[in-house]
C-alpha cells in the first residue's frame, strides 16, 4: 500500500511558500499540497492552516484561545503572520 508522504520543511524567512510542491519518489512524481505553516517571533509560535478546499485559517492561542480565524483564499503574503516569520512549512 502506498501512502502519501508528509514533508515538514524548516525554512528561512526568505523561503517562497507556494500552495503545491512537486517531488519525485521511487513510485514516480507526486504533487503535494500545502497544509500548514508555523510562524515564530516574539517568543511565541502561531500557525496558518490550509484546509482541503484550499482555504486558509490562522491560529494564535494567546490572542484567540482555541479558535482558528477564517482568512479565506490565499493570503497576500504567506511568509508572515502578524509580524511573525514562517519557520516550518508542511506539505502532504
Ligand atoms: C512578505 O513579507 C516579508 C516581510 O515583510 C517581505 O520581506 C517579503 O518580501 C514579502 N513577500 C511578498 C511576496 O510580498
Describe this structure in words.
The chain is mainly beta and 92 residues long. The chain has one domain (7-91). The chain has 1 helix and 8 strands. Strands 1, 2, 3, 4, 5, 6, 7 and 8 form an 8-stranded antiparallel beta sheet that branches. It is globular and about 45 Å long. The protein starts with 6 loop residues before the first strand and ends with a strand. 14% of the residues are buried. The structure holds 2-acetamido-2-deoxy-beta-D-glucopyranose. 2-acetamido-2-deoxy-beta-D-glucopyranose binds next to loops.
Features:
single chain, mainly beta, signal
Strand residue percentage: over 45%
Bound small molecules, by name, code or SMILES, are: 2-acetamido-2-deoxy-beta-D-glucopyranose
Sequence of secondary-structure elements: EEEEEHEEE
Mean pLDDT: 93
Q: Give a short account of the largest sheet.
A: 8 strands, antiparallel
Number of DSSP E strands: 8
Overall structural class, as computed from helix and strand content, comes to mainly beta
- State the low-pLDDT regions, or none: none
Number of domains: 1
Task: Count helical runs.
Answer: 1
Radius of gyration: 14 Å
- Measured as a percent range, the helix fraction is under 10%
The coarse silhouette is globular
Ends apart, CA distance between termini: 17 Å
Keywords: Signal
Signal peptide: 1-20
Amino acid at each position: 500500500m502506498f501512502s502519501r508522504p508528509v514533508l515538514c520543511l524548516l525554512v528561512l524567512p526568505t523561503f517562497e511558500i507556494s500552495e503545491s510542491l512537486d517531488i519525485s519518489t521511487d513510485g514516480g512524481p507526486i504533487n503535494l499540497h500545502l497544509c500548514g505553516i508555523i510562524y515564530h517571533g516574539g517568543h511565541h509560535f502561531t500557525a496558518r492552516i490550509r484546509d482541503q478546499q484550499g482555504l486558509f485559517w490562522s491560529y494564535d492561542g494567546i490572542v484567540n484561545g482555541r479558535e482558528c480565524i477564517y482568512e479565506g483564499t490565499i493570503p497576500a503574503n504567506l511568509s508572515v503572520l502578524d509580524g511573525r516569520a514562517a519557520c516550518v512549512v508542511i506539505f502532504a
